[in-house]
Amino acid sequence: MKGWDILYYLVNGLPIGAIYALVALGYSLIYASAGVLNWSQGDMVMLGAFIGYNLHCLLGLNFILALLITTPAVACIGMLVERIVLRSLRKRSSPPVNVVIGTLGVAIICRNLALAIWGPDAQLFRSPVGSVPVEIGTLRLFPQDIFILILGIALMILLQYFLKYTREGKALRAVAQDRMAASLMGIDVGKSDTLAFAASAAMGAVAGILIAPLFFVTFNMGAGIGLKGFVAAVVGGLGNIPGAIGGGFFLGLIESFASGKISSGYRDAIAFTVLILILWLKPAGLFSKITKETV
User: Fold this and answer.
1) How far apart are CA 275 and CA 258, in angstroms?
2) Which H helix or E strand runs over 56?
3) Is the pLDDT of residue 56 over 70?
4) CB within 8 A of 232, min separation 6: which ones?
5) Angle made by CA atoms 14, 147, 194, in degrees to the nearest 5
6) How many CB atoms lie within 10 A of CB 80?
7) Which residues contact 101 (CB under 8 A, 6 or more apart)?
8) Model confidence band, residue 294 (pLDDT cutoffs 50, 70, 90)
9) Other beta carbons within 10 Å of 183
10) Phi-psi category of 244—alpha, beta or left, where left has phi over 0 and alpha has psi -120 to 50?
11) Which backbone phi and psi does 294 adopt, to 5 degrees?
12) Cα Rg for the chain, rounded, in angstroms?
């Protein structure tokens, strides 16, 4: 394989890998804190894309301003999901599977609301950094890809700082390590769950508004991205934050190499083949030994 070919696959795989990593972080945060899977995570991506589209493309707000408004707005939706689904069902001593089904219901509701509000037609979200590629030899670097990579990595670093150096982040990590012990030590585990849902929804919103210029914005766009994010989370080790980041980039690069060497039509099949192989060969995830802490 030529050196330029490897660079080409890296250039194409890293940006989408950053998107998968952001979505995977959402799954892992909630799983580590609350011990459940949130199947509405992909639809937080869709809501982020649509709200950002309305603010930036229809109302003409600056992209960064639209991003700063969209992120907390979707975070509030995530908090609402935690209050209505997770907290209310736990008060009734419902089994975890009921909570998972509840989040799946939220996903379907979000999708149908988006269909009713914005319609079935795909919307074009123009890139805020332009679409003229930068050519380096035979490589073509698109500004939006670079923007996704820089902002995505910055958000991942910010999340790590939050978890390790803030009081709320340390509390969330304690809940992830031992929920009962954290509660006995005076930590409000319900507040940590709310924070996990809010942070996960916020990361989904950022992923949505970043990926929107690469694809059309549609009411069902969150389904595919959400599933890929889940695959990335499982590949990295569900509940493992560094693993979710590694799993996202790993999946993005695998898809890029598969598209170049086989066909782009097999990207989804290859992603889920990788998932099955990981579950078979290393159920704890590829990066489960990177850290003993899940969060």
Assistant:
1) 15
2) none
3) yes
4) 20, 21, 23, 24, 244, 247, 248, 250, 251
5) 85
6) 15
7) none
8) low
9) 15
10) alpha
11) -80, -35
12) 19
Return the residue matching tokens 């996990």: 196
Can you tell me the distance from the alpha carbon of 126 to that of 176, in angstroms, rounded to the nearest whole number? 39
| Residue 186, Ramachandran bin (φ over 0: left; ψ between -120 and 50: alpha; else beta) | left
pLDDT tens, position by position, 209-226: 999 998 889 999 999 899
3-state helix, strand, coil in the chain (%, to 5): 75, 5, 25
3-state secondary structure of 150: helix
Rounded CA separation 221/17 (Å): 17
Q: What is the DSSP letter of 217?
A: B
Q: How many residues does the chain have?
A: 295
Give the integer Cα–Cα distance in Å for 152 and 139. 22
Tell me the two tokens of residue 111. 């999708």
Measured CA distances, 133 to 11, 130, 139, 143, 207 (Å):
12, 9, 9, 6, 21
C-alpha span between 103 and 108 (Å, rounded): 9
Rounded Cα–Cα distance for residues 48 and 28 (Å):
19
Whether residue 291 has pLDDT greater than 60: no
The torsion angles phi and psi of 113, rounded to 5 degrees, stand at -65, -40
CA distance 68 to 1: 42
Domain boundaries, the chain: 3-281
Judge residue 292's burial from the number of C-beta atoms within 10 Å of its C-beta, 0-12 exposed, 13-18 middle, 19 or more buried. exposed
d(CA 85, CA 102): 6
Token pair listed for 172: 């969330």
